[in-house]
Amino acid sequence: MAIEVKVPTLGESVTEATIGEWLKKPGDPVKLDEPIASLETDKVAVEVPAPQAGVMGEYKVEVGQTVEVGAVIATIEDSSAAGETTQVKERDEAQPADQKAPAASSAPAASADDEDHTTTLSPAVRRAVLEHGVDPTQIKGTGKDGRLTKEDVLAAAQAKKAAPAPAVSQAAPSPAPAPAPAATGERREERVKMTRLRQTIARRLKSAQEDAALLTTFNDCDMTAVIEAREAYKDLFAKKHGIKLGFMSFFAKASCLALKDVPSVNAYIEGDEIVYHDYVDISVAVSAPNGLVVPVVRNADALSFAGIEQAIADYGQKAKDGTLTMADMQGGTFTISNGGVFGSLMSTPIINPPQSAVLGLHRIEDRPVARNGEVVIRPMMYLALSYDHRIIDGREAVTALKIIKEAIEDPMRLLIDL
To answer: Which pairing describes strands 334-338 and 282-284: parallel, antiparallel, or unpaired?
Structure first.
């Protein structure tokens, strides 16, 4: 008896998705709750778990096809069907060698462990495997339950490049000639269909530009005090909380301070009304294999530095593993985007609708600045606050950014709520 595999509930307001990749082939053994397919929604990639153990049946839809919640996408043969397959295999193995089918003389199939290892890779890991040409069965996974991560594949690819080429025996036949290199100056084009996530990102960013009255205000920030505080307490912080002390928690707490003092920066427009929030849910822009995602650190104003750092670290790992959920992405009243990790000196970030403001962080670099009538070298960072001018006046935006700057330059303000 075949069990139907249906598209699961994908989250609030999400009614359809696109088949991104099949993780199991027809005839493959399947365990209960094992991922068998990857769906691309407007926000994240979602894995479809097997509703029962058995054998993968037929596909009802193809990769790239759009499906609605509740639609049947495949079937799984139940365990009795799997048992019949095993009995046939055992009966075939019991036959004399000369009575076996020609296929019986082929190499033995991979073990179940190897099969699970290669067929339950996340989409990001599969792309890395194909791109670098490595054998996933020869890589030890460091992810949850021993699953491979993108970092595992990249490390294996580096090790493969660094390994010396095996010596060739003189008796061995000469290798086949290498294919001729492409002609110098050859021009190529490749067309790749945009993923559903990339299409959504493009649509939302364009919508933000068209619907909001975007404006950006800049300031620079002396990072000396934060760097000294981090250097002084990072070891004790890691020992006590089990997480590294980064700069993001300082900026998150400084932003909470500013948003409490300037409520319009933490609000958004809904119809002809302005919705104010007495809490701060900070969306943190994270680079994922499929594009930029913004998971939400909820109640950041009530969290400690350690709580914020732990939440951000957890989201970063989930983004790398491709396991972010719709619930992780929903909501958010303000966004922080750190382009500095990629080397950006200055930028004008775009707001994340329906939010009304986004703080852009940039790289830290030593620059000459005037202090008490003298020119000194300080680690400086440019800060950018993009905002919707329909709801936030210039005075309010500049004030909010100034509060953030002052809190970073004098972290004591974060302790005394000043």
So the answer is: parallel
Question: Using an 8 Å Cβ cutoff, are 61 and 31 in contact?
Answer: no
**Annotation marks residue 393 as catalytic:** yes
Q: Tell me: the pLDDT tens digits for 194-245?
A: 777 677 778 777 878 888 899 999 999 999 999 999 999 999 999 999 999 9
CB 45 within 8 A of CB 18: no
- 203/199 Cα distance (integer angstroms): 6
**Distance separating alpha carbons of residues 379 and 36, to the nearest angstrom:** 49
Specify the amino acid at residue 373. Answer: G
Phi-psi region for residue 372, left (φ > 0), alpha (ψ -120 to 50) or beta?
left
Asked whether the beta carbons of 326 and 8 are under 8 A apart, the reply is no
Q: Is the pTM of this model over 0.70?
A: no
Q: One of 114, 235, 393, 410 is an active-site residue; which one?
A: 393
What is the rounded CA–CA span in Å between residue 221 and residue 84? 70
- Exactly one of 117, 389, 410, 417 is catalytic; name it: 389
The token pair at 31 is 């365990």
- The question of whether 132 is a catalytic residue gets the answer no
Q: Which of 383, 388, 349 is nearest to 363 (CA)?
A: 383
Sign of the alpha-carbon dihedral angle for 202, 204, 209, 211 = positive
- Show the domains of the chain with their CATH numbers: 2-101 (2.40.50.100), 214-416 (3.30.559.10)
